[in-house]
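Why should sequence recovery work at all? Because a backbone constrains its sequence more than one might expect. Tight turns favour small or flexible residues, buried strands favour hydrophobic ones, and helices have their own preferences. The token representation captures these environments compactly. In the example below, the structure is given first.
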């Protein structure tokens, strides 16, 4: 059922990966684990295109949604490591047209800016126009006073952080990622997918819209309260978050650089992104960041009720930390349970990439059959649990999925 490599000591990961297909509705997927930068698990299986019966191959790639944010945040941290960006400086120090002098770079990275929604109705295809989106966001009024609370910048994060990368480096977000991260490390990572790569992309399968007990409150409000923050985020996307010719599976969407949701890769590429971060910021002689940046990535800056996602979240500068909401709302699938040292980012539908420096381990899981919730669902969490068991951990999240 699965293809690829799996070291004997990580056999549990293969077992859970295959159970995802047999018992948990997996369609097509990939999972990768690295230790000291070397792959110990690199598996793939299922169907890349369910309608056509096309198998998921070794080089199949897909949209990773919010797992993209880790790549965008890393680009800013690379610039910070070079002394070109100060996280405590106002955004206007690098982007003078930005309308608020009281919002810092760090507030953007830690989801404290309040710039979570867009007031005016966006035209069709707006997400494909970087200039339009950054000009629009530059004059947005925050949903709350900056730094007074935190709330997930679900889609705005990519242009807020990405425009900082562009202003400072003089290169687009996608170009910076390719030249400074992907190409040096030999990774199949794309913001702005070239047309020649399009045949490798697995179409995404949207999760059920049923507001059952597995559905997150964020998703329920999209369909029931059109004036709510979740509805205004999700529905005012120029068609990007909806199935159709302007949606996330269109060629135009894949070609665009959408830093909050548009990274196209597979588990091998995403785990490769985090591998240097699991190994002190450097891998094979290629240094991305230093100790200061790694400390900022793995240190929680904000924690508690999230004004956007409507459950508890924990963020460092640009990355999500382990978040256990089981005791608050045990029926919801809005947890992401990792080791205390880990940092990374999940994506809509249940994919994830993260680094665990204490284990010099990176992990990624990507798929095309999207699941419920806003963080991890049983498929991804079971794979994460299997990795930690393989590393000798005994306290994991398994009971939440019973």
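From this structural description, the recovered sequence reads:
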């Amino acid at each position: 059922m699965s293809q690829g490599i799996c070291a004997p000591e990580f056999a549990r990961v293969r077992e859970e990966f295959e159970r995802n297909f047999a018992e948990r509705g997996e369609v097509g997927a990939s999972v990768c684990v690295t230790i000291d930068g070397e792959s110990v698990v690199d598996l793939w299986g299922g169907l890349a295109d369910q309608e056509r019966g096309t198998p998921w191959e070794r080089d199949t790639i897909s949209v990773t949604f919010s797992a993209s944010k880790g790549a965008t945040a890393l680009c800013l941290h690379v610039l910070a490591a070079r002394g070109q960006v100060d996280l405590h400086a106002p955004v206007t120090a690098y982007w003078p047209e930005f309308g608020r002098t009281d919002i810092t770079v760090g507030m953007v990275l830690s989801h404290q800016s309040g710039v979570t929604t867009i007031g005016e109705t966006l035209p069709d295809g707006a997400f494909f126009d970087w200039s339009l989106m950054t000009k629009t966001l530059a004059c947005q009024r925050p949903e709350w006073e900056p730094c007074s609370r935190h709330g997930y910048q679900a889609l705005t994060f990519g242009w807020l952080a990405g425009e900082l990368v562009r202003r400072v480096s003089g290169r687009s977000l996608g170009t910076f990622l390719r030249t400074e991260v992907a190409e040096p490390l030999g990774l199949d990572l794309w913001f702005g997918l070239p047309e020649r790569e399009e045949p490798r992309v697995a179409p995404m399968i949207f999760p059920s819209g049923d507001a059952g007990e597995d559905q997150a409150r964020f998703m329920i409000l999209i369909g029931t309260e059109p004036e709510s923050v979740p509805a205004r985020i999700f529905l005012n996307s120029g068609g990007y978050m909806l199935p159709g010719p302007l949606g996330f599976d269109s060629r135009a969407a894949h070609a665009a650089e959408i830093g909050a949701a548009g990274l196209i890769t597979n588990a091998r590429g995403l785990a490769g992104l985090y591998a240097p971060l699991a190994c002190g910021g450097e891998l094979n002689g290629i240094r991305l960041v230093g100790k200061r940046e790694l400390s900022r990535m793995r240190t929680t800056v904000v924690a508690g009720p999230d004004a956007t996602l409507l459950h508890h979240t924990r963020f460092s500068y640009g990355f999500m930390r382990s978040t256990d909401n089981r005791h608050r709302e045990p029926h919801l699938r809005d947890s992401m349970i990792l080791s205390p040292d880990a940092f990374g980012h999940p994506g809509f539908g249940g994919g994830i990439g993260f680094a665990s420096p204490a284990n010099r381990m990176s992990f990624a899981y990507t798929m095309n059959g999207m699941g419920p919730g806003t963080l991890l669902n049983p498929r991804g969490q079971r794979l994460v649990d299997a990795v930690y068991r393989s590393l000798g951990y005994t306290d994991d999240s398994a009971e939440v999925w019973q």
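A few observations help interpret the result. Residues 398-402 have pLDDT under 50 and may be disordered.
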